[in-house]
Amino acid sequence: MSEVILAESPAITGVNRWWQLGWGLVCMMAISSSQYVWTLFTTPLTAHLKATLAEIQVTFSVLIVLQTFLSPFQGYLVDVFGPRMLLSIGSILTGLSWVLAAGARTTFELYLTYGLLGGIGTGIIYVGVVGLMARWFPDRRGLACGIVAAGYGMGAIITTYPIAATINRIGYQQTLLSFGVIFGIVGILAAQGMRRPPSGAEGLPLVHPSAKDAGCVTPSQMLVSPIFWVMFLIMTMMSTSGLMVISQMAAFAKDFGVANAMVFGTAALPLALTIDRFTNGLTRPFFGWLSDRIGREQTMGLAFGLEGVAMFVWLSTRENPLLFVLLSGVVFFGWGEIFSLFPSTLTDTFGGRHATTNYGFLYMAQGVGSVFGGPLAAWLHEAMKSWVVVFSVMIVLDLLAATLAVTVLRPLRAAAQRQRTR
Fold first, then answer.
1. DSSP H helices in 198-337
2. Distance CA 138, CA 161 (A)
3. Burial class of residue 415 in the structure, from the number of CB atoms within 10 Å of its CB (0-12 exposed, 13-18 middle, 19+ buried)
4. Residue 422: CB partners within 8 Å, gap ≥ 6?
5. Span 35-77, pLDDT tens digits
6. Could you give the CA distance from residue 102 to residue 247 in angstroms, rounded to a whole number?
7. Residue in 75, 85, 81 with CA at minimum distance from that of residue 126
8. CA-CA distance, 378 to 394, in Å (whole number)?
């Protein structure tokens, strides 16, 4: 059985794996607000805790750093103990992070609750679900990873307006308490449906050239591969630019004078955030599907370049509320696909057996990007008294990442493929 067409394997093509995709999607939606509505809390937190924006943004970096830097270990635990137990624990920790943050009296307490507990909880769920989908769908790896990643990107669509309205009506503390309980319960219920794929199914060799497994490379073997570190560098660049926008959007929208401007009868900032959640989710299955057909690196070059160009136009027209809203959606359409392209490319390259743990190591790039895009970007703005410099750095990173994907990563992976087929 040297080569098997996956579509003919009954072990993983029945309704089972599609249920897994559905439950994984719900799990991702339940944790998405921790990252994607954070910007709504920065202003009231700054006022209530009497802290600077840079100090408050450390919370966001703690969240992302712990979400990502612990992910190799968390991925290993999911592989060993199974997804149902670990994803339930992740959901409990995520809900508690909001509930306990409601009572935070200092920035340090905020770091320990929303940041530390939230980072651990969301990290378990994120790396666990993405790693499982890479194993359940080796024939549609880009699409499947894109769909569950879309849940993380789009889940906050249904919470952005309610959370913004609740903050305005009863304050941020009651908002954190109420929504934390809801997110925890939804995540726990969805986790009960998650299972591992049948033994050996994720290791089947494939006929489709864009979905070939490279064997079963262990994490230690992967970490000495130049391909991994090129991918890590590119993902760090892209994470930095996207997380700068996510964490600072309320601040620079206010400085640009468009935050409260009316667009289509709605304040520009919450409208932009809602559109962003939609495009940030839509891009993940779309570019994942496209990469299954035209190749991973070609798709990276297209998507990353789109974000760089969109950010340049966005900055150039920053005082126009309508364009601010519309272009913010284009920026996120060019960014969010990193969460489908990188796990699928990594698993194509290093195999499916250790996919969850392996992706945990690559996902650490998101944590590095959160430091550069969060407090360091806020510090750069405070030092330069302008967002233009910050945006300029992000645009350069986007365009450089697009170039590296096509001119460096693609030849490296092609050479490795030729070496394997000799």
1. 219-222, 226-256, 268-294, 296-316, 321-333
2. 37
3. exposed
4. none
5. 878 888 888 998 888 888 878 888 988 898 888 888 888 877 8
6. 19
7. 75
8. 13
Beta bridge partners of 262: 267
Whether residue 122 has pLDDT greater than 60: yes
Q: What token pair was written down for 201?
A: 């199914």
Length of the chain: 422
What lies within 8 Å, CB to CB, of 31 at 6+ separation is 90, 91, 94, 121, 122, 125, 126, 152, 155, 183, 187
Angle between helices 141-154 and 268-294 (to 10 degrees): 170
CB atoms near residue 125 (< 10 Å): 32
- Is residue 404 over pLDDT 90? yes
Question: How does pLDDT run across 335-388, given as a tens digit for each residue?
Answer: 988 988 998 899 888 887 777 788 889 988 988 888 888 778 888 888 888 888
| Rounded Cα distance, 340 and 285, in Å | 7
- Helix, strand, coil shares, percent, the chain, to 5: 80, 0, 20
- pLDDT value for 200: 52
Per-residue pLDDT of 19-34, as tens digits, reads 888 899 999 998 888 8
Q: What is the Cα Rg of the chain in Å?
A: 20
C-alpha 44: how far from chain center: 25
Instruction: Name the pTM for this structure.
Output: 0.73
CB-based burial, 279-302: b 16+ in 10 Å, e otherwise: bbbbbbbbbbbbbbeebbbebbbb
- C-alpha to C-alpha distance for 342 and 300, rounded to whole angstroms: 9
Q: Which residue has the higher pLDDT, 260 or 298?
A: 298
Identity at 167, one-letter amino acid code: I
pLDDT exceeding 90 applies to what percent of the chain?
A: 33
Quick one: pLDDT at residue 207? Answer: 30
